[in-house]
């Protein structure tokens, strides 16, 4: 359990008997949503946004959430469930301080119930209070391989998140980290496949263009490749783009009807 600092730990907005049971149901619903994501064919950004959305459902008092994915120690992607969260996170990453940054850097849960007077992030607190946001719980996404990122869950009122909210958030964050890691690995694999396919397609295009230049100019393979490279430098573009242009032009010429 990370540290927590929140006002209103004894909130009685709901009947005492119903609160814990309802919170457990909300957590179960959020966890069930995470489980369904395992079989969903979604892009990385969409999946992360849904994880953040399930966090809002799982943590009592939450009004919006953001999820930050790290790659190589740097922010790779930030998704949000509500426009006001985007504004808050823009402030956080713009000034380089805030609960999400702390949670990710220290791999611990961070809770605050009065951001305007919180001494840990004075500049951040002053800015977000102007946006009407006062409470936050930030949860690191931790796997055996390290910290993948963190989730921020916000509320406009003061003292919204107590120790119970932090505990529920941590119960949600553990499987959420697994879902995020799996999605990230899959996205990286897809990106690598796309890069390899593009490289293969580019190689094929260059080989075809070399053949066309050899046929038209009666030159050797090496000389044809030199001509393509010279054209690439002259036009200020890459070799593959030039090759594709040569191939496309040859295809159009071949399809043009000849008269006479």
UniProtKB/TrEMBL annotation:
Biased composition (Basic and acidic residues): 10-23
Keyword Magnesium belongs to the record: no
InterPro entries reported for this sequence: ANTAR, CheY-like_superfamily, GAF, GAF-like_dom_sf, GAF_ANTAR, WH-like_DNA-bd_sf
Database matches in PROSITE patterns: ANTAR
Keywords: Kinase, Transcription, Transcription regulation, Transferase
Superkingdom of origin organism: Bacteria
Stated name of the protein: GAF domain-containing protein
Organism listed in the record: Friedmanniella luteola
């Amino acid at each position: 359990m990370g540290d927590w600092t929140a006002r209103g730990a004894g909130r009685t907005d709901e009947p005492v008997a119903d609160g814990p049971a309802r919170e457990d149901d909300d957590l179960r619903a959020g966890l069930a949503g995470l489980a369904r994501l395992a079989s969903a064919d979604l892009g990385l950004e969409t999946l992360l946004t849904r994880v953040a959305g399930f966090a809002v459902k799982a943590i009592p008092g939450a009004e919006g959430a953001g999820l930050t994915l790290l790659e190589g120690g740097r922010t790779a992607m930030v998704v949000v469930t509500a426009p006001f969260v985007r504004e808050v996170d823009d402030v956080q990453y713009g000034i380089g301080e805030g609960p999400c940054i702390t949670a990710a850097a220290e791999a611990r849960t961070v809770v605050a119930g009065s951001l305007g007077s919180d001494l840990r992030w004075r500049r951040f607190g002053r800015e977000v209070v102007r946006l009407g946001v006062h409470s936050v719980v930030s949860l690191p996404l931790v796997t055996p391989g390290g910290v993948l990122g963190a989730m921020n869950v916000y509320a406009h009122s003061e003292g919204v998140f107590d120790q119970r909210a932090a505990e529920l958030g941590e119960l949600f964050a553990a499987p959420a980290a697994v879902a995020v890691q799996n999605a990230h690995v899959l996205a990286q694999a897809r990106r690598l496949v796309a890069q390899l396919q593009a490289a293969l397609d580019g190689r094929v295009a260059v080989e075809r263009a070399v053949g066309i230049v050899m046929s038209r100019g009666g030159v050797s393979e090496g000389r044809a490749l030199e001509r393509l490279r010279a054209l690439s430098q002259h036009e200020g573009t890459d070799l593959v783009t030039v090759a594709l242009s040569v191939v496309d032009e040859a295809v159009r010429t071949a399809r043009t009807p000849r008269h006479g």
